[in-house]
Fold:
Amino acid sequence: MLLSVDNLSVSRGGISLFEGLNFTVSTGEIVLINGGNGVGKTSLLRSIAGLQPIDKGKIAINTDNFIFAGDANGIKTALTVLENLRFWSAIFGGKNLHEALEKFQLRQLKNRFAGKLSAGQKRRLSLARLLLTDRPVWLLDEPTVSLDKRSMKQFSRILKNHLEAGGAAVVATHIDLGLTLSSLSINLEDYQMKNGNINASAKAFL
Amino acid sequence: MSLWEYANPVKFLNLSDKVLPFFAGFSIIGLAVGLFWGFFFTPDDYRQGSTVKIIYLHVPSALMAINAWFMMLVASVIWLVRRHHVSALAAKAAAPVGVTMTMVALVTGALWGQPMWGTWWAWDPRLTSFLILFLFYLGYIALWSSIDNPDTAADLTSMLCIVGSVFAILSRYAVNFWNQGLHQGASLSLDKEKNVADVFYQPLLFSIFGFVFLFLTLVLIGTRTEIRLRRAEALRLKKDRE
Amino acid sequence: MIALLQRDLILAVRAGGGFGLGMAFFLIVVILVPLGIGPDLEILSKVSVGILWVGALLACVLSLDRIFSLDYDDGTLELLLTSPIPLEAVVTVKSFSHWITTGLPLVVISPILGLLLGLQVSDLKWVFISLLLGTPALSVIGAFGAALTVGIRRGGLLLSLLVLPLYVPTLIFGANVASKGLADISNNSALLILTAVTLAAFSILPFASALVLRINLR
Structure:
């Protein structure tokens, strides 16, 4: 098992977003997180990545096992596409970045400054980072934002390859990625408290 | 039943409600006795004349200016280690009191320095250190007021207080290195020989006692206000969700 | 980590604001002060150490917010936090690259500016040495302030208010090294303390800065 989430509660801005969330992810599995705006998809992913403290419950994940891709691209506009990737490749211990360029169709763009890319191309560059490491668990927050249909299909294929190669993923998305592999879909709205709740920090004052 | 139980904000409100009148009373008694005795019933100093009497404001305020920062340091550590909200809010409430005490010490010092040294201000190590302490207080207060999330603000200001304390001590040492000054030695010391004369000493103790309880009273009131603000915010959040 | 240093240096060159701006500011301070004080080189040489140190300090403060805010805004910092490199090392490397792009140029031009302020050629080495030993501490102390204010919009003024009091010991010992050297008094103890301050700041403060960054990123 690569990731297990046990009875998890997370809050943002003093309000509990969801409570009692349980799921596990093993090799080859993907968990899709859905729900409307503000239910806590991003907060859940950030909590798993260790960026955000949790209120209750337990998250078991090896910190060397995951790679996180948030809503921000983390791209330096003053560097070229290749330089951006080379940097992240060095940080994550250097897998072959030409495969990443190829798969995300960035080869022609590799000497272009990232600031000159379109939003979709920037997104592809940002996602290409995932292929620079062997880390099995991908934590993806709305990965397909601003991708066109073709790029989206392509990304689905890359994701599928990753899962078949023994990887795993937790993806927050509204969009049907068309994956036929074993996937669990969680709607966070089901875990919202019926009449809401304020978090522990605020509760201390009542 | 441990002392930490009172770290619960609501319990703290109840307890502080009971002790606050006593603290305020002690403060009034201490200040009244100390200042009246000091101002009207002590002789003039044979060298300094009646200007010496400002000592009853100067020494206690300077003492509390330093102690307030020390209290903030302890409270910050407690917040970071044990996450008691009262602790963080007490540190927040102590800062304006501390900065006021620093200002009082600087102003009374200038008023005393003018007739004694012939100048309102000198770049003496102690005076300079107090000016630097004043800057530390300003930074701390400014940081509190510029962060929205109260827990984040408490964490960051606590870190600033701890790192700032190290640098404040280093600055004190550096300033000594930089200039040996004209300020007199410590007014209070366990070494009896070095103390100010007994006639001045006894009312000074009353005044210090008064200042300590004045500080405690003001910090308690400030902490209670901060707790109530957070309580109001929590109640509003709760109401929104219903 | 070398990759991070390399990237920061390339960005400083390409995006501008790295090497040039701090130096230009330093130069302006050193030109403006004599205009305020008067042209007497004897007076100027007496206050020269103070002008050079305070000028370097202010030039340093001006560029502090660049240490983390750019990486914070575009999400890089968040990704670095989840990367295999410890955040403490990230802070250390970024402080060091700030020193190379801001502190080091100031150190290099300080002898020339010292001449403008009426210092003897034989005395210039003390200004150079004191700044060389002291400016790294300014960068790493400044990184702590930059970490504290990274999430605050328009936090520049607040950053100076937080950082400048923390600069007091470095300023005092640094200026002391130079002025004692100029007066031909033994400055060994000041030299030793200044070095100790810089080394201690580099070995301890990145831990505090990393903790503060984690708080700001959650």
